[in-house]
């Protein structure tokens, strides 16, 4: 059985609240799960202790059983020190688009021309 540690959404419309659960990978997102491992409230400030709550002992148990965490849950576990941090890099996402690059070069050329005119 492929087990995942993932988020199950709760809460009302536009007020998300997530349970961190161990579930069979074949089950739906908010469907049947094996065990509730914690909670995540994205509406709280990032520095709040109540934002992410985990039962680390049970999380370690499920990881030892071969459960794979999803990307978001793995970030929580990295922050808690349970998993080693994976290097994440998406350099193309950080690059500005074509038009923004053109505007930046035009702005730099205009600034250089202004400096030359001021120097003379």
Number of helices: 4
Low-confidence regions:
none
Overall structural class, as computed from helix and strand content, comes to alpha+beta
Mean pLDDT: 90
The shape is elongated
Query: Which CATH architecture of the largest domain?
Result: 2-Layer Sandwich
Oligomeric state of the chains in view: single chain
CATH superfamily of the largest domain: Ribosomal protein S16
Helix content: 25-40%
- Termini separation: 76 Å
Secondary-structure element string = EEEEHEHHH
Output the CATH topology of the largest domain: S16 Ribosomal Protein, Chain: A
- What count of structural domains? 2
In terms of DSSP E residues, the strand content is 25-35%
Largest sheet: 5 strands, mixed
Number of strands: 5
Give the strand order, joined by hyphens, for the main sheet: 4-3-2-1-5
CATH first level of the largest domain:
Alpha Beta
Could you explain how this protein is built, in words?
The chain has helices at 56-64, 71-80, 91-94, 98-119, and strands at residues 3-12, 15-24, 35-40, 52-54, 68-69. The chain is α+β, with helices and mostly antiparallel strands and 120 residues long. The chain has 4 helices and 5 strands. The radius of gyration is 23 Å and the shape is elongated. It folds into 2 domains: 3-80, Ribosomal protein S16 (S16 Ribosomal Protein, Chain: A), CATH 3.30.1320; 89-120. It has a 5-stranded mixed sheet. Strand 1 and strand 2 form a beta hairpin.
